[in-house]
Amino acid sequence: AIFSTRRGRSPTTTMASSSSATTGEKPVASIIGGGPCGSVCAMVLLAAGFDVDVYELRPPPETHSLDAEAETTGGSQRLASATKRSINLALSHRGICALRRVGAADAVLAGAVEMHSRFVHLADGSTAQQRYGEPGQAIYSVSRPDVVRILAALAQQRGARFHYGEKFAGFVPAEEEKRIAGEANGASSKNKKNKKPSGLVAAFASGRRARAGPVVGCDGAFSATRRALERLGRYDAHVWYAREGYKELGVPAAGRDTYAFPKNYLHIWPRGATMLVALPNADASFTATLFAPMDELETMERAWSRDDVAAYFRDAFPDAVAAMGADAVVDDFFANPASPLVQLTVSPWHFKGQRLRRDDDSGDDDDDDSRGLSVLLLGDAAHAVVPFYGQGANAALEDCLALAEIIDDLRVEQKTDGSTKPADLLDLIDAAFAAMSRDRRRAADGLATLATMNYADMAENTASWRYRARKAVERTVARYCGPSLWMPQYSMVTFSRMPYDAVLERHFKQERALTWLCAGLATAIGAGVLLLGARAVSLRRG
After folding, report:
1. Residue 453: partners with Cβ closer than 8 Å, 6 or more residues away
2. What is the DSSP string of 511-533?
3. Where does the pLDDT of residue 332 fall: very low under 50, low under 70, confident under 90, or very high at 90 and above?
4. b/e sequence 344-361, b meaning 16+ C-beta within 10 Å
């Protein structure tokens, strides 16, 4: 019940820091990674009563206006957001619920563009529209750099300390930091020779050390936190690279505040093994992404001329090239290198280790107050998925919401609601981390399967009349049966908080029923046609 929208608690509730008096110094939580997941997690832990440090490899996010980045090309604005090296985020119900929980939804959605349907550009030049859900339901295109900047600013306003330009290097004995600090203050290291280490802390290439306390790795698919954990104990991490890679391209505004394509749609050019996707930006540009087999993209980069690339786009996506500009699309193609798509599963997500033992450790724990290293992986660090369902960021944000809900539940169960005593908080967060690893991981594994399956829908099936007819039948069944009896897979994933693994199980059951229903309809229609034909023949003979 952790992952469904629960009765008795509104998903729009905003978290506020506890006002209870503290006993002693607040415990410190360290977050590796300052992206959307890291910032929302920071706000969750701040509200739980922790001091929070966030360590981010990149420099601080840009704070100047996008208008300052505009370039003028051929009389039209070509804004920098149309060629960012990051796939736009498509926020849906799960991610929005998480943002509402921390009071960030309004700020993020202020710059979002609603997308209520797919707009399919078929190879023969015709188009088709496919609504995502019921009227009033939509997903939202947002610029990832803008989301990073907004969420980091909100987290800092609430007390999180962000440390930029910090490359995570691994976990080191906390005693090393204490020894260095003591020597800097003139203390003799001789008396510390036999002092036992008090546990492990996060260390960074700059020499900085995190303060002792729980650590959350939110540092993406190529997580340095995860790699460090693999060296500390038995840890399963399965990495899979998709056959497809991607290149990001730009579609400039057709004029001031004028979109080159209809605005409130996710645009798809399905071409079988390849696919072009374009998401609208608030500045009237589109962020376009070409998905194709990675080896083909690399061959195009290495061996094709500009004329070859121009001819490829002109033949495959003529209306897109007309909006992009023939020269501009080739410039973007060679300027943005092909990037791989990675998917991974990890087990466990939570590492709870004891203090590091050394060769001269006698094993006497009398004066050791170590609670052990407690690390949780969240977001892409724990369950990176290919982007074909637009759920990567939503699942990462839902991780943070699930963690907040688990903390709420544990406080009720342990009757420690509002307590900010360091011992209570540390015990609470250890239990919450363990619950996340035990329960949430099943849902993430289900998402990996769903995301892979959806590529066939987007790249091939959306161009098939049979697929569109089947979906029309399913929408009719769903409308008459209601969501308790029937809900399309896309709606379960995008417009509910049903666990992804439960979505997968229900989808397969519905698909079997839908296959029988469509077969029955086809048989009935065929029989009807035959009867009408036979009657027409008999009338002519008569």
Report:
1. none
2. HHHHHHHHHHHHHHHHHHHHHHH
3. very high
4. bbbebbbbbbebbeeeee
